[in-house]
Amino acid sequence: MKIIIQTLVVMSLLIMMTPQVLADLPPAFEGRKLYISHCQLCHAADGKGDGPLAKAMRIDAEDLTTVVRSGSDNNLIKIITGKGRHASTHRISASMPKWEEVFSEHQIKALVAYLRFLSSSKHDLIGDPEIGLQLYQKYCAICHGIEGDGKGIMTELLRIKPIDHTNPHKTEKLDNKELATSILDGRGKFMPAFRGVLNQSEVDGLVSYIRLLYQIWGKLEDGGLVILMRPHTVDMNEENGDSLLRDPSCKSKENLSEKGKMNAASIGEQFKSRGIPIESVLASQDCLAKETAKTAFGQVEPVEFLSLMETIPEQQADSYTAQLERRIGSYSGKGNLVLVK
Ligand code: HEC
Ligand code: HEC
């Protein structure tokens, strides 16, 4: 069961990584704001758990920097929202408020992204990332990209390849001072020196903002994970309705909508550009799933046990579930195993 939970974690990740969402604020950046206004009173600014309110209430608010590391996203979401908390791996006392009514799903994910950052980054946030956000968009995005992925509009013209600031594998290696020095003194031929343009606290704000561009991609780069994807856009056509989804002939042109195709292609591109290793890609027999897999990864192995459970007899469903668990439960490949369902 644990593996299934791990799989779902990665799935929700993929949904967060679709381009529309990437255009929003970086999740960890947004999560930090919510953390400061709602959590640090008890859990403390650094997440160590001895915030002023926890002391006054004489409660033991856990050290989030250690407990978060071992928890799955799903489990964390349960603990934070309070929804299904009883089913989480350990009992949580009532002194941890239930936040379900307070935050949207998107905000909860942002909080989780920030908790992940808090529990895995070696570097402190030394400046105000709010200032950093403004300055990054103003001075840096043309080269480093609006989202910090190193793909700004000037990169082709100048033939430069700035590092991807959203990749913790790359940024974690550089300490705060190294980042600040690059900004103040410039680097190489094209990274301009900002000494005289920006003061120290502005540079510190930029350094903190770069830290919060952190995205969990790095995890996938290590391989060995099972990634579950769901194609989620179909052109609904009056005549065919949702039957297109189950069309076994794969002849309908509308199987995967244009938007769905773009999403799949963009996910595939991101995997490629980040060098995320893929061992194999399995998909259900549905055309939509097969097409998504092919569009994204250029390969697909259709398997029966990924069939949608609603469409098959119960007994068969049980046997498929068992096969699925056998396949992913014992998974120990070097690259990632992708399932498209
Ligand atoms: C009123 C104080 C208080 C506030 C505010 C608070 N917490 Fe907690 N939190 C606690 C306490 C106490 C625990 C430990 C409960 C236990 O283990 O029984 C806890 C536990 C947790 C855990 C579980 C840690 C583990 O053991 O796995 C997470 C995650 C967490 N809090 C996240 C948050 C987030 C995110 C916020 C802000 C949205 C928040 N908390 C706000 C008091 C608080
Ligand atoms: C004209 C394009 C350009 C602009 C504008 C620019 N950079 Fe860079 N930056 C680069 C290039 C290219 C590199 C890689 C230099 C090298 O290592 O040769 C780089 C490197 C860096 C580095 C060193 C670590 C790394 O990522 O390789 C940091 C930190 C950095 N830039 C931050 C910023 C910040 C913050 C701003 C805005 C205040 C900014 N840059 C503006 C092109 C640019």
Instruction: Sum up the overall morphology in one term.
Output: flat
Describe the strand arrangement of the main beta sheet, using strand numbers.
1-4-2-3
> What is the average of the pLDDT values?
82
Return the CATH class of the largest domain. Alpha Beta
What is the correct CATH architecture of the largest domain?
Answer: 3-Layer(aba) Sandwich
Would you give an account of this structure?
The protein is mostly helical and 341 residues long. It folds into three domains: 103 residues, Cytochrome Bc1 Complex, Chain D, domain 2; 84 residues, Cytochrome c-like domain (Cytochrome Bc1 Complex, Chain D, domain 2), CATH 1.10.760.10; 119 residues, Rossmann fold (3-Layer(aba) Sandwich), CATH 3.40.50. Helices cover 50% and strands 5% of the residues. The protein has 17 helices and four strands. The protein has a four-stranded parallel beta sheet with strand order 1-4-2-3. Helix 6 packs across helix 8, helix 9 packs across helix 13 and helix 15 packs parallel to helix 16. It starts with a helix and ends with a strand. One heme C (HEC) binds next to helix 9 and helix 12.
Features:
341 residues, mainly alpha, Cytochrome Bc1 Complex, Chain D, domain 2, 4 strands, 50% helix, 5% strand, flat
List the helices and strands and how they pair.
Blueprint (H helix, E strand, L loop, with lengths): L1 H15 L2 H4 L4 H12 L1 H4 L8 H6 L6 H7 L2 H9 L23 H16 L8 H16 L9 H5 L9 H4 L4 H10 L14 H13 L4 H5 L4 E4 L28 H16 L4 E6 L3 H11 L3 E2 L11 H16 L6 E5 L1
Parallel strand pairs: 1-4, 2-3, 2-4
Helix pairs in contact: 3-8, 6-8, 9-13, 12-13, 15-16
The chain binds heme C (2 copies).
